[in-house]
Specification:
Length: 146
Amino acid sequence: MVRQRIPKKLRLLIKERAQGCREYCICQEDYGPDAFSDEHIIPLAAGGKSAAQNLARACQRCNNFKYNKTHAIDPLTRESVSLFHPRKHNWHEHFAWSDDYTLMVGLTPIGRATIAELDLNRKGVVNQRKLLLLIRKHPPGKYRLS
């Protein structure tokens, strides 16, 4: 399969829409050591397109963990469920922050499966959240509690 480059105009739209955050682990671009990538939510190999509704901003680690997956096992029910889809799902319906705002907590099978499969509470991400809390930069914008 020949992989086509995502046009610059579309990459800019994806970046603006993400509001400076990775759309899975919620790390912030201004403070992250790794580059962001534009990730196909439905992989090209599964028929996904390089279109705005199928692209999300992701860090390389989340992108690597997700790879070509669209489903994962909910650790609580042990059932296969779809992974979080940033264009179709509301973050606040599937996730919350722990009391100290350092861990993402899955509220639904989709949330729990996504946290487990993409390792969204891995050490480096949690450490970044702790540091950003100290300077009042976490949680970012649309991921704050209402």
